[in-house]
Amino acid sequence: MSNLRTPEVENLLEVLSAMTDKDELYALFEDLFTIREIKETSQRLSVARLLDAGNPYTAIAEATGASATTIARVSKALNYGSGGYRHALDVLASHE
């Protein structure tokens, strides 16, 4: 994690945490990332939700189009990572 904590990443996190307007966030994401990167990142969050709900890999692959490798990577992060997916899923659950 220490390699991730750079001034540049801190600036990005500061901007993201301060922005509340979804249209502004869409604009920033469209400027920062390719459409493919945004969709792939969003897909990973969907995979995490389905894994957390107990769905099997085959059903997740069918529902999201994610590869087995992506599903396994998300599963590993969800179960043994630094807690980012768990917090994101908790945020989503609180908004449902």
Task: Provide structural commentary.
The chain has two domains: 32 residues, no CATH class; 61 residues, Orthogonal Bundle (Trp Operon Repressor, Chain A). It contains six helices and no strands. Helix 3 runs antiparallel to helix 4 and helix 3 crosses helix 5. The longest helix is centred in the middle third of the chain and has 18 residues.
Number of separate domains: 2
- How much of the sequence lies in strands comes to under 5%
- What's the SSE pattern? HHHHHH
Helix content: over 70%
CATH architecture descriptor name of the largest domain: Orthogonal Bundle
Spans of at least 5 consecutive residues with low confidence: none
- Using the alpha-carbon principal axes, give the shape: globular
Instruction: Give the structural class.
Output: mainly alpha
CATH class of the largest domain: Mainly Alpha
By CATH, the topology of the largest domain is: Trp Operon Repressor, Chain A
Describe the oligomeric state of these chains in a short phrase. Answer: single chain
Global Rg: 15 Å
The total beta strand count reads: 0
Mean pLDDT: 95
Count helical runs: 6
Fourth-tier CATH superfamily name of the largest domain: TrpR-like
Distance N terminus to C terminus?
A: 31 Å
Largest sheet: none
InterPro entries: Trp_repress (IPR000831), Trp_repressor/repl_initiator (IPR010921), TrpR-like_sf (IPR038116), YecD_YerC (IPR013368)
GO molecular function, one term: sequence-specific DNA binding
Protein name: TrpR YerC/YecD
